[in-house]
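Box S1 | Example of a co-folding query
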Amino acid sequence: MTRIFSGVKPTGHLTLGNYLGAVRQWVAAEQEPDEALFCVVDLHALTVEHDPARVRRLSRQAATLLLAAGLTPEKCTLFVQSHVDEHARLSYLLECTASDGELRRMVQYKEKAAKAQGSGEGVRLSLLTYPVLMAADILAYRTGEVPVGEDQRQHVELTRDLAVRFNQRYGYTFTVPKATHPVVAARVMDLQDPRSKMGKSGDAGPGVVFILDEPEAVRKKVMRAVTDSDGGVVYEPAARPGVANLLDILAACTGGEPAALADGYTGYGALKRDVADAVVELLRPVRVRHAELAADPGTVEAVLRAGAGRARAIARPVVDSAYRAIGLLEP
Ligand code: TRP
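Box S1 (continued) | Returned holo structure for tryptophan
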Protein backbone atom coordinates (compact mmCIF):
# COMPACT_ATOMS: atom_id res chain seq x y z
CA MET A 1 0.00 0.00 0.00
CA THR A 2 1.28 3.41 -0.94
CA ARG A 3 0.59 6.46 1.14
CA ILE A 4 -0.39 9.54 -0.85
CA PHE A 5 -0.12 13.12 0.41
CA SER A 6 -1.00 16.36 -1.27
CA GLY A 7 -1.73 19.90 -0.22
CA VAL A 8 -3.69 22.89 -1.38
CA LYS A 9 -2.71 26.39 -0.38
CA PRO A 10 -5.52 28.71 0.74
CA THR A 11 -4.22 31.83 -0.98
CA GLY A 12 -7.05 32.30 -3.43
CA HIS A 13 -10.25 30.80 -4.70
CA LEU A 14 -9.69 27.41 -6.27
CA THR A 15 -9.65 27.40 -10.04
CA LEU A 16 -10.52 25.08 -12.87
CA GLY A 17 -6.75 24.52 -13.07
CA ASN A 18 -6.65 23.31 -9.48
CA TYR A 19 -9.66 21.10 -10.13
CA LEU A 20 -8.38 19.42 -13.29
CA GLY A 21 -4.72 19.41 -12.30
CA ALA A 22 -5.06 18.29 -8.72
CA VAL A 23 -8.39 17.90 -6.96
CA ARG A 24 -9.93 15.54 -9.48
CA GLN A 25 -6.85 13.33 -9.35
CA TRP A 26 -7.12 13.24 -5.60
CA VAL A 27 -10.69 12.03 -5.78
CA ALA A 28 -9.59 9.30 -8.19
CA ALA A 29 -6.62 8.37 -5.99
CA GLU A 30 -8.90 7.95 -3.04
CA GLN A 31 -10.75 5.17 -4.86
CA GLU A 32 -7.65 3.01 -4.87
CA PRO A 33 -6.58 0.85 -1.97
CA ASP A 34 -3.89 3.39 -1.08
CA GLU A 35 -4.04 5.55 1.97
CA ALA A 36 -4.52 9.21 1.09
CA LEU A 37 -3.99 12.38 3.10
CA PHE A 38 -5.11 15.76 1.80
CA CYS A 39 -4.12 18.89 3.58
CA VAL A 40 -5.16 22.52 3.47
CA VAL A 41 -1.69 23.98 3.89
CA ASP A 42 -2.55 27.19 5.68
CA LEU A 43 0.95 27.83 7.04
CA HIS A 44 2.12 28.17 3.45
CA ALA A 45 -0.39 30.98 2.92
CA LEU A 46 1.59 33.13 5.35
CA THR A 47 4.73 33.29 3.19
CA VAL A 48 3.50 36.36 1.33
CA GLU A 49 1.49 39.43 2.42
CA HIS A 50 -1.78 38.12 3.78
CA ASP A 51 -4.99 39.17 5.42
CA PRO A 52 -5.78 36.98 8.47
CA ALA A 53 -9.55 36.97 7.93
CA ARG A 54 -9.10 36.03 4.29
CA VAL A 55 -6.76 33.14 5.04
CA ARG A 56 -9.26 31.82 7.58
CA ARG A 57 -12.14 32.11 5.10
CA LEU A 58 -10.20 30.55 2.23
CA SER A 59 -8.99 27.67 4.40
CA ARG A 60 -12.55 26.80 5.33
CA GLN A 61 -13.66 27.22 1.74
CA ALA A 62 -10.88 24.98 0.40
CA ALA A 63 -11.81 22.19 2.80
CA THR A 64 -15.48 22.56 1.91
CA LEU A 65 -14.70 22.49 -1.80
CA LEU A 66 -12.58 19.36 -1.48
CA LEU A 67 -15.48 17.59 0.15
CA ALA A 68 -17.86 19.00 -2.47
CA ALA A 69 -15.55 17.73 -5.22
CA GLY A 70 -16.01 14.22 -3.90
CA LEU A 71 -13.39 13.45 -1.29
CA THR A 72 -14.99 11.19 1.29
CA PRO A 73 -13.83 11.47 4.89
CA GLU A 74 -14.28 7.73 5.39
CA LYS A 75 -11.71 6.96 2.70
CA CYS A 76 -9.14 9.71 3.12
CA THR A 77 -7.76 11.99 5.78
CA LEU A 78 -8.63 15.63 5.16
CA PHE A 79 -7.13 18.14 7.57
CA VAL A 80 -5.64 21.56 8.10
CA GLN A 81 -1.85 21.80 8.33
CA SER A 82 -1.71 24.15 11.33
CA HIS A 83 -3.84 21.72 13.36
CA VAL A 84 -0.97 19.24 13.37
CA ASP A 85 2.17 20.58 15.07
CA GLU A 86 4.44 17.95 13.55
CA HIS A 87 4.77 19.92 10.28
CA ALA A 88 6.44 22.87 11.97
CA ARG A 89 8.46 20.60 14.28
CA LEU A 90 9.89 18.61 11.41
CA SER A 91 10.44 21.67 9.25
CA TYR A 92 13.11 22.91 11.63
CA LEU A 93 15.06 19.66 11.46
CA LEU A 94 14.91 19.80 7.69
CA GLU A 95 16.18 23.40 7.73
CA CYS A 96 19.18 21.88 9.44
CA THR A 97 19.46 19.40 6.58
CA ALA A 98 18.99 21.75 3.62
CA SER A 99 21.47 24.35 2.43
CA ASP A 100 20.92 28.02 1.77
CA GLY A 101 22.08 27.71 -1.84
CA GLU A 102 19.73 24.83 -2.52
CA LEU A 103 16.73 26.91 -1.53
CA ARG A 104 17.81 30.03 -3.38
CA ARG A 105 17.91 27.96 -6.56
CA MET A 106 14.18 27.17 -6.42
CA VAL A 107 12.53 28.66 -9.49
CA GLN A 108 9.32 29.51 -7.68
CA TYR A 109 11.25 31.33 -4.96
CA LYS A 110 13.11 33.42 -7.49
CA GLU A 111 9.88 34.36 -9.26
CA LYS A 112 7.89 35.14 -6.14
CA ALA A 113 10.73 36.96 -4.42
CA ALA A 114 11.19 39.18 -7.47
CA LYS A 115 7.48 39.92 -7.47
CA ALA A 116 7.32 40.72 -3.76
CA GLN A 117 10.39 42.91 -4.03
CA GLY A 118 8.99 44.68 -7.08
CA SER A 119 5.79 45.57 -5.24
CA GLY A 120 7.79 46.96 -2.31
CA GLU A 121 6.42 44.36 0.11
CA GLY A 122 9.71 42.87 1.13
CA VAL A 123 10.40 39.15 1.00
CA ARG A 124 9.42 37.10 4.03
CA LEU A 125 12.06 34.66 5.21
CA SER A 126 9.40 31.95 5.12
CA LEU A 127 9.15 32.37 1.35
CA LEU A 128 12.71 31.06 1.12
CA THR A 129 12.15 28.21 3.56
CA TYR A 130 8.71 27.31 2.17
CA PRO A 131 9.92 24.23 0.24
CA VAL A 132 11.42 22.88 3.45
CA LEU A 133 8.06 23.11 5.16
CA MET A 134 6.56 21.40 2.14
CA ALA A 135 9.16 18.64 2.50
CA ALA A 136 8.15 18.30 6.15
CA ASP A 137 4.48 18.00 5.11
CA ILE A 138 5.40 15.09 2.91
CA LEU A 139 8.07 13.33 4.96
CA ALA A 140 6.21 13.46 8.29
CA TYR A 141 3.82 10.86 6.88
CA ARG A 142 6.40 8.61 5.18
CA THR A 143 4.57 9.46 1.97
CA GLY A 144 5.20 7.35 -1.12
CA GLU A 145 3.50 9.46 -3.77
CA VAL A 146 2.78 13.15 -4.10
CA PRO A 147 0.23 14.02 -6.78
CA VAL A 148 1.01 17.61 -7.81
CA GLY A 149 1.12 19.91 -10.81
CA GLU A 150 4.29 20.25 -12.88
CA ASP A 151 5.21 23.49 -11.13
CA GLN A 152 5.78 21.55 -7.90
CA ARG A 153 8.15 19.01 -9.39
CA GLN A 154 11.26 20.88 -8.24
CA HIS A 155 9.95 21.05 -4.66
CA VAL A 156 9.31 17.31 -4.61
CA GLU A 157 12.83 16.73 -5.97
CA LEU A 158 14.19 18.79 -3.08
CA THR A 159 12.07 16.73 -0.70
CA ARG A 160 13.65 13.56 -2.07
CA ASP A 161 17.15 15.01 -1.71
CA LEU A 162 16.47 15.98 1.90
CA ALA A 163 15.03 12.56 2.73
CA VAL A 164 18.03 10.75 1.25
CA ARG A 165 20.50 13.08 2.96
CA PHE A 166 18.81 12.78 6.34
CA ASN A 167 18.65 9.00 6.06
CA GLN A 168 22.33 8.78 5.10
CA ARG A 169 23.53 11.03 7.87
CA TYR A 170 21.32 9.93 10.73
CA GLY A 171 19.98 6.52 9.86
CA TYR A 172 16.95 5.44 7.93
CA THR A 173 14.00 7.61 8.97
CA PHE A 174 12.05 8.81 5.91
CA THR A 175 10.47 7.19 2.90
CA VAL A 176 11.79 8.80 -0.29
CA PRO A 177 8.65 10.01 -2.10
CA LYS A 178 7.98 10.52 -5.76
CA ALA A 179 5.86 13.08 -7.55
CA THR A 180 3.04 11.93 -9.79
CA HIS A 181 1.39 14.08 -12.45
CA PRO A 182 -1.92 13.64 -14.21
CA VAL A 183 -1.60 12.84 -17.89
CA VAL A 184 -3.96 15.48 -19.26
CA ALA A 185 -4.37 19.06 -18.16
CA ALA A 186 -1.67 18.89 -15.53
CA ARG A 187 -1.31 22.51 -16.42
CA VAL A 188 -4.37 24.52 -17.33
CA MET A 189 -3.26 27.88 -18.64
CA ASP A 190 -4.75 31.33 -18.19
CA LEU A 191 -7.39 31.95 -20.86
CA GLN A 192 -6.07 35.46 -21.52
CA ASP A 193 -2.40 34.62 -21.22
CA PRO A 194 -2.03 30.99 -22.30
CA ARG A 195 1.71 30.96 -21.64
CA SER A 196 1.22 31.28 -17.91
CA LYS A 197 -0.52 28.97 -15.48
CA MET A 198 -4.14 29.55 -14.47
CA GLY A 199 -3.20 30.65 -10.96
CA LYS A 200 -5.35 31.14 -7.93
CA SER A 201 -3.05 33.58 -6.19
CA GLY A 202 -3.28 36.18 -8.91
CA ASP A 203 -6.23 38.52 -8.90
CA ALA A 204 -9.57 37.52 -10.34
CA GLY A 205 -8.35 38.04 -13.87
CA PRO A 206 -10.63 37.49 -16.85
CA GLY A 207 -8.56 34.45 -17.86
CA VAL A 208 -9.13 32.52 -14.65
CA VAL A 209 -12.16 30.24 -14.17
CA PHE A 210 -12.98 29.57 -10.54
CA ILE A 211 -14.67 26.37 -9.43
CA LEU A 212 -17.47 28.38 -7.83
CA ASP A 213 -18.02 30.75 -10.79
CA GLU A 214 -21.62 31.05 -11.94
CA PRO A 215 -22.23 29.28 -15.30
CA GLU A 216 -22.69 32.64 -17.01
CA ALA A 217 -19.32 33.85 -15.78
CA VAL A 218 -17.67 30.63 -16.98
CA ARG A 219 -19.19 31.05 -20.44
CA LYS A 220 -18.10 34.65 -20.70
CA LYS A 221 -14.51 33.85 -19.75
CA VAL A 222 -14.26 30.91 -22.14
CA MET A 223 -15.85 32.78 -25.06
CA ARG A 224 -13.35 35.62 -24.56
CA ALA A 225 -10.32 33.35 -24.33
CA VAL A 226 -7.50 34.49 -26.56
CA THR A 227 -6.87 32.18 -29.45
CA ASP A 228 -4.13 32.60 -31.98
CA SER A 229 -4.12 34.90 -34.96
CA ASP A 230 -3.75 31.95 -37.31
CA GLY A 231 -7.18 30.52 -38.16
CA GLY A 232 -7.89 26.79 -38.04
CA VAL A 233 -8.07 24.47 -35.08
CA VAL A 234 -4.92 22.39 -34.62
CA TYR A 235 -3.18 21.15 -31.50
CA GLU A 236 0.24 22.80 -31.36
CA PRO A 237 0.98 23.78 -27.77
CA ALA A 238 4.22 25.64 -28.50
CA ALA A 239 3.13 27.62 -31.54
CA ARG A 240 -0.59 27.94 -30.73
CA PRO A 241 -0.89 27.97 -26.93
CA GLY A 242 -4.36 29.54 -26.79
CA VAL A 243 -6.08 26.91 -28.92
CA ALA A 244 -4.03 24.12 -27.35
CA ASN A 245 -5.17 25.20 -23.88
CA LEU A 246 -8.83 25.08 -24.95
CA LEU A 247 -8.32 21.64 -26.45
CA ASP A 248 -6.52 20.47 -23.31
CA ILE A 249 -9.40 21.66 -21.16
CA LEU A 250 -11.96 20.01 -23.44
CA ALA A 251 -9.98 16.78 -23.40
CA ALA A 252 -9.71 16.85 -19.62
CA CYS A 253 -13.47 17.46 -19.25
CA THR A 254 -14.68 14.95 -21.80
CA GLY A 255 -11.90 12.38 -21.75
CA GLY A 256 -10.69 12.70 -25.36
CA GLU A 257 -7.32 13.34 -26.95
CA PRO A 258 -6.61 17.03 -27.61
CA ALA A 259 -5.10 16.45 -31.07
CA ALA A 260 -7.99 14.21 -32.14
CA LEU A 261 -10.58 16.64 -30.76
CA ALA A 262 -9.10 19.39 -32.93
CA ASP A 263 -10.21 17.52 -36.07
CA GLY A 264 -13.84 18.07 -35.14
CA TYR A 265 -13.60 21.86 -35.46
CA THR A 266 -13.15 24.33 -38.24
CA GLY A 267 -13.54 27.53 -36.23
CA TYR A 268 -12.88 28.90 -32.77
CA GLY A 269 -16.51 29.78 -31.99
CA ALA A 270 -17.78 26.21 -31.95
CA LEU A 271 -14.75 25.03 -30.00
CA LYS A 272 -15.25 27.70 -27.35
CA ARG A 273 -18.95 26.91 -27.02
CA ASP A 274 -18.18 23.23 -26.46
CA VAL A 275 -15.45 24.04 -23.95
CA ALA A 276 -17.81 26.36 -22.06
CA ASP A 277 -20.55 23.69 -21.95
CA ALA A 278 -18.12 21.02 -20.84
CA VAL A 279 -16.68 23.16 -18.05
CA VAL A 280 -20.10 24.29 -16.81
CA GLU A 281 -21.33 20.68 -16.66
CA LEU A 282 -18.15 19.50 -14.98
CA LEU A 283 -18.39 22.10 -12.23
CA ARG A 284 -22.16 22.07 -11.71
CA PRO A 285 -22.36 19.21 -9.20
CA VAL A 286 -19.42 20.59 -7.27
CA ARG A 287 -21.11 24.00 -6.90
CA VAL A 288 -24.36 22.41 -5.76
CA ARG A 289 -22.68 20.25 -3.16
CA HIS A 290 -20.54 23.16 -1.99
CA ALA A 291 -23.64 25.25 -1.29
CA GLU A 292 -25.11 22.40 0.79
CA LEU A 293 -21.96 21.95 2.81
CA ALA A 294 -21.35 25.66 3.30
CA ALA A 295 -24.79 25.86 4.90
CA ASP A 296 -23.67 23.25 7.43
CA PRO A 297 -20.23 24.34 8.72
CA GLY A 298 -20.42 21.99 11.72
CA THR A 299 -20.06 18.99 9.44
CA VAL A 300 -16.93 20.34 7.78
CA GLU A 301 -15.41 21.26 11.15
CA ALA A 302 -16.04 17.76 12.47
CA VAL A 303 -14.37 16.23 9.40
CA LEU A 304 -11.32 18.45 9.88
CA ARG A 305 -11.07 17.68 13.58
CA ALA A 306 -11.19 13.94 12.98
CA GLY A 307 -8.72 14.29 10.12
CA ALA A 308 -6.21 16.18 12.27
CA GLY A 309 -6.46 13.45 14.89
CA ARG A 310 -5.66 10.73 12.37
CA ALA A 311 -2.88 12.76 10.79
CA ARG A 312 -1.26 13.46 14.15
CA ALA A 313 -1.31 9.78 15.03
CA ILE A 314 0.72 9.00 11.89
CA ALA A 315 3.12 11.95 12.00
CA ARG A 316 3.94 12.05 15.68
CA PRO A 317 6.01 8.85 15.88
CA VAL A 318 7.80 9.64 12.61
CA VAL A 319 8.81 13.12 13.74
CA ASP A 320 9.76 11.84 17.19
CA SER A 321 12.08 9.30 15.60
CA ALA A 322 13.66 12.07 13.48
CA TYR A 323 14.29 14.07 16.69
CA ARG A 324 16.05 11.10 18.24
CA ALA A 325 18.03 10.31 15.08
CA ILE A 326 19.38 13.84 14.65
CA GLY A 327 20.76 13.92 18.18
CA LEU A 328 18.11 15.50 20.37
CA LEU A 329 17.69 14.09 23.83
CA GLU A 330 14.55 12.13 24.60
CA PRO A 331 12.35 14.20 26.95
N1 TRP B 1 3.46 24.00 -2.64
C1 TRP B 1 2.20 23.44 -3.08
C2 TRP B 1 1.53 24.41 -4.04
O1 TRP B 1 1.83 25.58 -4.06
C3 TRP B 1 1.28 23.17 -1.93
C4 TRP B 1 1.85 22.18 -0.96
C5 TRP B 1 2.35 22.44 0.28
C6 TRP B 1 1.98 20.78 -1.16
N2 TRP B 1 2.75 21.30 0.87
C7 TRP B 1 2.54 20.27 0.05
C8 TRP B 1 1.67 19.92 -2.22
C9 TRP B 1 2.83 18.91 0.17
C10 TRP B 1 1.96 18.55 -2.07
C11 TRP B 1 2.53 18.06 -0.88
O2 TRP B 1 0.67 23.99 -4.78
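The chain has two domains: 3-181+297-326, 215-292. The CA atoms of residues 162 and 168 lie 10 Å apart.
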